[in-house]
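Writing this down once: the sequence line spells out the residues, with the fold written below as integer tokens. I am pasting one below:
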Amino acid sequence: MIVYRCDLCGETRDCRQREIENTEYDLCEECWAGLMARLQGKGRSRRSREVVTLPVAPEAPAPAPVTEPPFKRPTIIADAGSLH
């Protein structure tokens, strides 16, 4: 039997790993029972998930074909005196 230190009471006992909100905890049975008793009647009920359909968006018109490039390449001019 492997024993762990309980994350709530801090004592070394036979603990089980429990996952609460994507975080794992080592909890002994006494702490787990106490936690469940405090949470009794609280929280939200799970709703059944409903399928919702959204209206189809109208299609955008196709862009006109580009006949020339959208920009002209820059011309780089350097004077001979700045090059060493």
Notes: DSSP finds one helix and four strands in the chain.
